[in-house]
Amino acid sequence: MESTRIDRWLWSVRLAKTRPDAAAACRGGHVRVNDRVAKPSTSVVPGDEVRAKLGERTRIVEVVRVIQKRVGAADAVTCYLDRTPPPPPVAAIPVAVRDRGAGRPTKRDRRMLDKWRSGQG
Per the record, a Pfam family (predicted)? Predict the structure, then answer.
């Protein structure tokens, strides 16, 4: 059965920008293979589950195909199944709305806006 190092695989399938970045993530404890902390030299084989916190996002992928060299993005996505849950929806920030053509806000309107912006209203 074919296998490769986790740092090389993460770089090859374009989950990490550079191989040193992938190795640093492994050394920092941000990469797990089958729920075990992975060193950069940890071997991966098809069927392994990889959890990698690269940047701000944690990716959960299943290894489908092992490759040694970096490939194009279209080929890279065929090497893993992405099991990452979708990010939570971003809450919409309320915006103060004025009627079109209402002119400049009056002193009373301005006070209400300032009160709303400071969170007291």
Answer: S4
Q: Could you tell me if 11 and 22 are in contact, meaning their C-beta atoms sit under 8 angstroms apart? A: yes
Q: Which pLDDT score, from 0 to 100, does residue 67 have?
A: 93
Asked whether the predicted pLDDT for residue 42 surpasses 80, the reply is: yes
4-82, superfamily in CATH? Answer: RNA-binding S4 domain (3.10.290.10)
Closest residue by Cα to residue 82 from 52, 60, 51: 60
φ/ψ of residue 5, rounded to 5: -70, 145
> Would you put residue 110 in left (φ > 0), alpha (ψ -120 to 50) or beta?
alpha
User: What span, in angstroms and rounded, lies between the C-alpha atoms of 78 and 82?
Assistant: 10
Percent of the chain's residues with pLDDT above 70: 94
Per-domain boundaries in the chain = 4-82
